[in-house]
Amino acid sequence: MPDTKPTPNPKNVKPITNPELLEALKVLHQESTPLNQGRVLDLVLNRAVFLAPAVVTPAPQQPGQDPSAPRRTAIQFQLITTKDGRPFFPAFTDMEELRKFTGERKIQSVVLRFDDYVALVERNEKACGFVVNPMGLSLTLDRKTVANLAVKKKEVNELRRKRQEEQKQQPAYSQETIEKDTQVMVGDPDQVPQEMLDAVTAAARQRQDIRTLWLRQMVRQDGVQSLIIVVDHTGKQDEVFEAIAEAARPHFGSLPVDMIPYGTSFAAAATEDAQPFFRREE
């Protein structure tokens, strides 16, 4: 497959690893629940970086061509065949998983993400999809699933973009409501927005009605993520939330930020064993 954007994985660089995805796959294989499936798919779609075995052939230098001039590179990706004879593109989370497939023989590999696999599957009519770690705790995504996930990712990204624009343009804040029986996963943020926390902390110090603040990250069953500030306060909730939102707004990142009041069963579960980023000293 010529003229492909991904480049070979060079030597002497940080190796490709996906510890979160490996752990999530392990949990999924132990208990295949919608929540565990959503966690794995979120990592595959948005964060994972894979190794794909390939044959990389630089185009020959033409007579009189500047040696430093860029040359097109032909990349042929390898397909693997399942027991029922269907071909899939393999996606390996790290070199150890790749070696389970290739053994010790020398092999070239290319670094790919989910969007790259979408393009590969779309261009190759014979490919039935791609499979993560086919020699280990695997995840198989067939052609129809890949297409559906690609559409869903595009829709989610567009929704996030619009929400971020609304948050920048409007002074209002968003208060998260968790419906009964909704499956969500709450944990420590993948990336701590320290500038936002510093700004919110400074604002909280100016108000006697804010007692404690926690920052958590929530992943819904459908894979949509957001940051949540849990607020323990004694004042009027609208005023407290508005003050926090005004302080946080200039520092919003890629994830939307919502707030929930402390005192509900969900808030208690979300903050259990979590360290607050602000606590008023008595």
Q: Would you summarize the structure shown here?
A:
The protein is of the alpha+beta class. It has eight helices and twelve strands.
Describe this structure in words.
- 36% of the residues lie in helices and 23% in strands.
- It is of the alpha+beta class and 282 residues long.
- It has 2 domains: 19-59 and 69-149, no CATH class; 172-279, GMP Synthetase, Chain A, domain 3 (2-Layer Sandwich).
- Strands 8, 9, 10, 11 and 12 form a 5-stranded mixed beta sheet that branches.
- Strand 3 (80-81) and strand 4 form a beta hairpin.
- The N and C termini lie far apart (66 Å).
- Residues 1-12 have low confidence and may be disordered.
* SSE run: HHEEEEHEHEEHEHEEHEHE
Structural class: alpha+beta
**N- to C-terminal separation?**
66 Å
The average pLDDT value, as a whole number, equals 85
The shape is elongated
Share in helix:
25-40%
Count of DSSP-assigned helices? 8
Instruction: State the major sheet.
Output: 5 strands, mixed
Strand percentage: 15-25%
Number of DSSP-assigned strands: 12
Can you tell me the number of structural domains? 2
Parts with pLDDT < 50 across at least 5 consecutive residues: 1-12
Q: Radius of gyration over alpha carbons?
A: 23 Å
What characteristics describe this protein?
282 residues, alpha+beta, GMP Synthetase, Chain A, domain 3, 5-stranded mixed sheet, 8 helices, 36% helix, elongated
List the helices and strands and how they pair.
Layout: H1 19-30, H2 34-46, E1 50-58, E2 73-77, E3 80-81, E4 87-91, H3 95-102, E5 109-112, H4 114-123, E6 129-132, E7 139-142, H5 143-169, E8 184-187, H6 194-205, E9 210-220, E10 225-233, H7 237-248, E11 257-261, H8 265-271, E12 278-279
Parallel strand pairs: 4-6, 10-11
Antiparallel strand pairs: 1-2, 1-5, 3-4, 6-7, 8-9, 9-10, 9-12
Helix pairs in contact: 1-2, 4-5, 6-7
